[in-house]
Amino acid sequence: MGKFIYSDTVKVEIEDRALAHLHVVIGTKLRRGEPFYFSWRDDGSLGDGRTSVWLHQSLPLVFKFYGSRRPALNPAWIDALAYTANSSGGLHLVPEPTTPPGGATGDASLPRL
């Protein structure tokens, strides 16, 4: 389990593979100067609610991965996450789609946002 840390105040555990895909989508949007909301369901121990943060390039973000290897990226999942990030509801984690023919790749230059 990796961690997404926002402005030293909000920390959420996210599985490394999902976090790697979020890293690509969030990095691409912020590099383009496109602030947006990122929302997730809270753990049951926190009341089972949800949290939303406004992501902007001026605020510090940390992506802390548990494993040392970079997970292979699934372009279809990057596209699905980017679709939510570009919606009025903002980015939220969606299930990973089936990998299209050609398979997943470890190529970080893949984003087709």
Report on this model:
- This is ATP-dependent DNA ligase.
- Keywords: Ligase.
- This protein has one domain (2-92).
- It contains 2 helices and 6 strands.
- It has helices spanning 16-31, 75-85; strands at residues 2-6, 10-14, 36-41, 50-55, 61-64, 91-92.
- The strands form 2 sheets. Strands 2-1-5 form a 3-stranded antiparallel β-sheet. A 3-stranded mixed β-sheet has the order 4-3-6.
- A hairpin with a 3-residue loop joins strand 1 and strand 2 (10-14).
- The longest helix is centred in the first third of the chain and has 16 residues, at 16-31.
Give a quick set of tags describing it:
alpha+beta, three-stranded antiparallel sheet, three-stranded mixed sheet, 2 helices, disordered C terminus
Strand order of the largest sheet: 2-1-5
C-alpha end-to-end distance: 26 Å
Number of domains: 1
Q: Major beta sheet, specifics?
A: 3 strands, antiparallel
Quantity of strands, as a count: 6
Strand content: 15-25%
The rounded Rg comes to 14 Å
Mean pLDDT: 86
The number of helical segments is 2
Low-pLDDT regions: 106-113
**Which structural class fits the helix and strand makeup?**
alpha+beta
What is the topological layout?
Blueprint: E1 2-6, E2 10-14, H1 16-31, E3 36-41, E4 50-55, E5 61-64, H2 75-85, E6 91-92
Parallel strand pairs: 3-6
Antiparallel strand pairs: 1-2, 1-5, 3-4
Helix pairs in contact: 1-2
